[in-house]
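During the no-cost extension, the postdoctoral fellow (Dr. R.K.) reprocessed legacy sequence entries with the updated structure-token encoder. One reprocessed record is reproduced below for audit purposes.
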Amino acid sequence: MKTKTFIAASTFKRLDLFLTTECELSRSHIKKLVDDGLILLNGKPCKAGDSVKVGDSVQVTFKEPENLDITPQNIPIDIIYQDKDIAVINKQQGLTVHAGGGTKGDTLVNALLYHLDSLSGINGVIRPGIVHRIDKDTSGLLVVAKNDLAHVSLAKQIQEKSAKRIYIALLEGNLKTDSGTVDTLITRSDKDRKMMAVSTVKGRRAITDYKVIKRYNGYTLCEFSLKTGRTHQIRVHAKTLGHPVVGDKVYGYKKQKFDLNGQLLHAYKLILTHPTTGEVLEFTAPIPEYFESVLKKLKEV
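Re-encoded structure tokens follow.
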């Protein structure tokens, strides 16, 4: 392990924000180093949210890179764009993004290791290259970092909300309003730790804008724009609206009218700034055939 000391030339509200400007570390990586006691503020243990003043000394001990223990797998994936810094994937429904919760293989990460020539390692060996994720049974776009500089840039864009992620979903029933914003706290459910739930007293703030695209007899096609990126955010907020996503057996109806393998939720648009060129890039992916086939069965109102 190697140690490096950074001296603050200006004031920062948070230590993790200070370090993201000084070295190629994501805030999640910084928090892990803090939790492991590998970051000291003026020689003392600290928290990621501690303030940093001019002249403060921040000592960081960097762990040696771990050996990658993930097997590349030739799983077909739709790579709609890639260069030396990033790749944009149109993930199919049913593919888990990374290992966890008992899943060790057959993930997007296994596929990326097979199909791409490089991936960032900034988040450790469990999920290399993954800047953000979408649920196993949600389809659509996500960006992958091919090096650590790209990872830091993309993570910052998502944190600062300059990157835009827009989804399309078919909801049960008809929304009363044509547009609006859901702003709540989201936390782990007390009844089932695999589920998320809205809370009035604890959790992390979650903000989702929605807009009606088309109304059908008994259903509403909606566009959702994420302002934050909480686990299951759109699905939980759709339930909060009283109109869960069609096909969502976790947050919606147990009995479904259509024969689906998951929710009709698709990440169809992604807007970001290229980490190297500074160019604003916009990507779109049409809704999958199984989603389109359900819409064709519905009657517009």
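The longest helix spans residues 148-159. The chain has three domains: 2-62, 65-157, 166-267+291-297. The remaining legacy entries will be reprocessed before the final report is submitted.
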